[in-house]
Amino acid sequence: MTALLRTELTRRHEGVRGFEQIEKAKQEIETQCPGVVSCAVIVAMAARDAVALAGWPKYAVESGRRDGRVSSLELASDMPDVNDSIETLKSKFNLSYSARLYEFNETNDSDPQFNPKFLPELRRMCPKNGDINVRIPMDQVTKDKFDDQIMRNIKKGFAVIASDARLYDDHLTKQVVDFYAAGSQFALDFARAMVRMGRIGVK
């Protein structure tokens, strides 16, 4: 693993936070049940609880998954990135957010998926060559809730994350967005998907 690749992987996923909370929970559990509860299960339960605290229905989490014994930065590079194209996202399951606002596809324009009424506000919050640590709500409508509003945001051009916006570029994923934006099925399917994702790689 070269230093350049390690730096690139860190940059691509630098928004992933909360590791210290997982480690703290692991240490506390180890004092009561040493060698029983894995970090993988703690992460799954933390995700469930975070979603519930944000207003979404609570779902059951399967326990018993063990932690892996090998860490791979190469495998981490296969994780979906916020700037991936729909083709890349589909095959897995660019450079910065500023590019979507000011230099989309190496032009001097913005991502055409942005709602024209939304673009000036984003540019105000994220000026060109501004502070890269500025954080903006992924959902401008229900900022402090986890719900299916993101689907309606994507449909109307209010998707903040590039990979969300790309879902409306492809006719198959566009149908999925339209389906969830129009109904109430997303909560149930989200819970099912989280449980199924927790089974990936379990032998």
From TrEMBL:
UniProt enzyme class: oxidoreductase
A Gene Ontology biological process term: response to oxidative stress
Keywords from the named record: Calcium, Heme, Iron, Metal-binding, Oxidoreductase, Peroxidase
Pfam families cross-referenced by the UniProt entry: peroxidase (PF00141)
Cofactor(s) needed for function: Ca(2+); heme b
Record: residues binding substrate: P80
Residues annotated to bind Ca(2+): D139, T142, D147
Stored InterPro entries: Haem_peroxidase (IPR002016), Haem_peroxidase_sf (IPR010255), Peroxidase_pln (IPR000823)
Catalytic activity: 2 a phenolic donor + H2O2 = 2 a phenolic radical donor + 2 H2O
Domain Plant heme peroxidase family profile positions: 15-203
Domain of life of the native organism: Eukaryota
Naturally occurring in which organism (per UniProt): Salvia splendens (Scarlet sage)
Name of this protein: peroxidase
Its EC number(s): 1.11.1.7
Family, as annotated: Belongs to the peroxidase family.
Gene Ontology molecular function, alphabetical: heme binding; lactoperoxidase activity; metal ion binding
Cofactor binding comment, as recorded: Binds 2 calcium ions per subunit.
